[in-house]
Specification:
The structure is a single chain. Helix 3 (75-83) packs parallel to helix 4, helix 4 (99-111) packs antiparallel against helix 11 and helix 6 (158-174) packs across helix 11. It is globular, with a radius of gyration of 23 Å. Helix content is 36%, strand content 28%. It is an alpha/beta fold. The chain has helices at 15-24, 38-47, 75-83, 99-111, 126-135, 158-174, 249-252, 256-262, 271-278, 291-305, 313-329, 344-348, and strands at residues 4-9, 28-34, 51-53, 65-68, 89-92, 116-119, 138-146, 180-187, 195-201, 207-213, 220-227, 230-235, 240-246, 279-285, 330-334, 339-342. The strands form two sheets. Strands 14-13-12-11-7-10-9-8-15-16 form a ten-stranded mixed sheet. Strands 3-2-1-4-5-6 form a six-stranded parallel sheet, sandwiched between helices. It folds into two domains: 4-122 and 291-313, 3-Layer(aba) Sandwich (Rossmann fold), CATH 3.40.50; 123-289 and 324-334, Dihydrodipicolinate Reductase, domain 2 (2-Layer Sandwich), CATH 3.30.360.10.
């Protein structure tokens, strides 16, 4: 099999891990890492036995694919120069700085028949796959993604930094774009919103609640789904998935609860029998497969087989559309000024 000649553009906090993964894969030749920071670029290149160059223009020879992990504001100008040559591009999330840029990238990819994949890594989290398998049709979804301030991705707010992961998961679960969006946010440390909550209402009736914060003392990434099969809770960090669903007669005859309560001298004693006897509770441990390796392997497979990747450019655009809707609806409180700033997005327009 032909070695796939790959390059990584941007080897900062995230791109360096892409370079490490690619360098370890059989069938991949990491021919270059690109970064304007010579010290960082040379360090990563030396670790993986490849070449550092300061600009994509300096890459020697033909590429089979490229990873774009630059700051978000440079995604458009970086990725388009590869896509215009028909070179498949994996672009880290968010796809671009705004919907217009994201749409332009997707259009360029289609025009030049180039594969475009977006780095929504949680799609490859085995816990998400397990939760999706068990939920049936989603009726209500609640996502919680909070962490301490990391001092990276300071060029974007928490909606594009963290919430967009869960926006993508919600769209993957429902297959729909929302008909309405309500949101509230707060500025705490940086110049952009550091906390945001949003409620999405979907055409099919599902309701999605999203919470994202980088002002939390502890990290949490969790997903709860109330679906037609019951309730599912997925811890996306530990990858423990718990499910609860009515069993036996309670699934078909919920009125039975009244007869049971009426025939019991003290109905409060029944609470210990609910889980196990009337509601089936199960716990699953999803596998430990590395999500970044899985998404990169998906990209490499798409290159080799000329297939559409799991998270296509079109899906990246849809996530951007919803993120922009959240920002348009976002009423922001500032802890720096002690005042409500109104809608930052509208004020900047």
């Amino acid at each position: 099999m032909t070695q796939l000649r790959m390059a990584v553009v941007g080897v900062g906090s995230l791109g360096q891990h892409h370079a490490r993964k690619l360098a370890s894969f059989d069938g991949v030749d990491l021919v270059a890492v690109v970064d304007p920071n010579e010290q960082q670029g040379r360090s990563v290149a030396e670790q993986h036995g490849t070449t550092w160059v300061a600009s994509p223009d300096d890459i020697d020879g033909r590429l089979h694919g490229v990873i774009v992990a630059t700051p978000t504001v440079f995604h458009l100008e970086t990725a388009k120069q590869f896509l215009q040559r028909g070179v498949p591009a994996f672009v880290e999330k968010p796809l671009a700085a705004n919907v217009a840029d994201a749409t332009q990238l997707a259009a360029i990819a289609e025009q030049h028949d180039a594969i475009l994949q977006v780095g929504h890594i949680e799609r490859f989290n085995p816990a998400f796959a397990l939760a999706k398998e068990h939920c049936g049709v989603p009726l209500y979804v609640r996502c919680q993604r909070v962490s301490p301030y990391t001092f990276r991705s300071t060029d974007i707010g928490v909606v594009h930094d963290l919430m967009i992961h869960d926006i993508d998961l919600a769209l993957a679960l429902t297959g729909e774009l929302p008909t309405s969006v309500d949101a509230f946010g707060a500025v705490g440390i940086g110049p952009h919103e550091d906390m945001a909550v949003a409620r999405l209402k979907m055409p099919g009736g599902a309701v999605i609640d999203l919470t994202a914060s980088r002002m939390s003392p502890e990290a949490e990434r969790s997903l709860q789904i109330w679906g037609t099969n019951g309730c599912i809770h997925a811890d996306l960090q530990s990858r423990v998935v718990r499910t609860w669903k009515p069993k036996g007669q309670f699934r078909t005859t919920p009125q039975l609860v009244h007869a049971i309560a009426a025939s019991t001298p003290d109905p409060r004693t029944l609470k210990d029998r609910v889980f196990g006897e009337w509601i089936q509770a199960d716990e699953f441990q999803a596998n430990s497969n590395d999500a970044m390796s899985l998404e990169l392997q998906d990209f490499l497979s798409a290159i080799q087989k000329r297939t559409t990747p799991t998270v296509s450019g079109a899906e990246g655009v849809n996530a951007m559309i919803v993120a922009e809707s959240v920002l348009n609806a976002l009423e922001v409180w500032s802890y720096q000024t002690g005042q409500k700033q109104g809608n930052q997005q509208k004020a900047a327009a």
